[in-house]
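Anyone up for a design puzzle?
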């Protein structure tokens, strides 16, 4: 189930829990995500996986978020997918919600003539988990053979768990995995 509209300011709409909206409202949603570093936002030095979308990591009010700039449809679909995976009790990112920015109307030329089309940018918001690191950092460390085996065992458990729940992961590269360094294994 998609979240309800929590707040609307000018052309920005927040589909996030009410307790998070005051924190997220302070971010510069009027600007493209790739320019946020120039706007004195506390950016986290986290390397994201390969993506065709801009992804940035921010810390605000002692909370850490990953924000992905995409289309409205993709933000809604990915958020709903994360919610479904969590309902199945599968390990996944922590979905917070999404934000949309109406970028106005543009005229699209079609075979039958010109027609107006609304341009909307979507932002998927997930909360970063403690003790989770991307693969880029994992293998730069001097892990022992046993630690590497534990990492691969965790990846295998994830795939088995997803398969048992009937989940197909279309882009299961290591760069799309976060490894949780929890003491419970």
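Challenge accepted. My sequence:
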């Amino acid at each position: 189930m998609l979240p309800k509209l929590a707040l609307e300011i000018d052309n920005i709409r927040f589909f996030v829990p009410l307790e998070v909206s005051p924190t997220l409202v302070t971010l510069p949603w009027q600007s493209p995500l790739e320019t946020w570093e120039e706007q004195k936002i506390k950016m986290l030095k986290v390397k994201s996986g390969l993506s065709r979308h801009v992804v940035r990591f921010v810390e605000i009010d002692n909370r850490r978020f990953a924000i992905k700039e995409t289309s409205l449809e993709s933000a809604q679909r990915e958020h709903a997918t994360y919610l479904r995976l969590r309902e199945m009790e599968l390990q996944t990112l922590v979905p917070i919600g999404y934000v949309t920015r109406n970028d106005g109307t543009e005229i699209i030329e079609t075979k039958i003539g010109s027609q107006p089309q609304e341009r909307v940018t979507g932002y998927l918001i997930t909360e970063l988990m403690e003790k989770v690191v991307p693969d880029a950092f994992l293998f730069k460390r001097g892990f022992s053979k046993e630690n590497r085996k534990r990492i691969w065992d965790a990846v295998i458990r994830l795939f088995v768990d997803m398969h048992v729940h009937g989940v197909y992961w279309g882009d299961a590269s290591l760069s799309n995995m976060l490894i949780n360094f929890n003491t419970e294994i």
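A detail worth pointing out: The mean pLDDT is 83.
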